[in-house]
User: Fold this.
Amino acid sequence: KKYARNSRMMEIQERLTERALELLALPDDGVPKLLLDIGCGSGMSGETLSEHGHMWVGTDISRAMLDVAAEREVEGDLFLGDMGQGLPFRPAMFDGAVSISAVQWLCNADSTGAEPRVRLKRFFTSLYNSLSRGGRAVLQLYPETPKQAEMITMAAMRAGFSGGLVVDYPNSTRAKKYFLTLMAGPPAEIPKPKGISGSASEDSEAEDGIKMSGRVSGKRRKGDDGKASTGGKCHPDQKGKAWILKKKEIRRKRGYMDVKEDTKYTGRKRKSKALS
Assistant:
């Protein structure tokens, strides 16, 4: 309930759904479309669909979130279900589908028999079948790693979809967003991403650490002797290449999207400029 009433989260959901609708590229013929909202949660994204004049059906694995959606009296029909078990809808039922921040959870093997590749196959196969010929699905997601993004995309391609990832603001560590844009029919041109001319300075790492959501962590850490130490008093070797690589790997496993790829320049000290 707190999530559903958080004005900041509502604003983010609305903005992401607006972008998903833009990528969905529905015909501007004045006829309302029937859309599927996958991982609809409390119905915030569905409200944006309603504001655009569309009818929608929402499905989510959380009964509590669907209860909140019902309390908010959203206009869509709500179904409880696990998308990893397949979508229980008849063939060609929907004109399009959207999903905001949900599909990446299919990659979590957090229970017995929850094999990510099997769950992805069930999901994308059933999604393909539920879309009308030529229908699109736009799935906004947060992949943990490039390999995970590739695994999700390839699962969609094997199910019969064409399309690919649209990455908005690819040069920004904060604004970067992934939209898997899929077509259930003949291949079509993938929409262009936003912000492709962003400044490279947005992606720069802090010289003495790893950026955390745009800020360098100032927390005190314990050294090898068990004593607390600050960033400026670390052992000279502690912030070398090995230390940086380790911290980056930890952040990747925790799902942070602002971790730059490793290169030969990672951990290399910058040369001081000579004063004239």
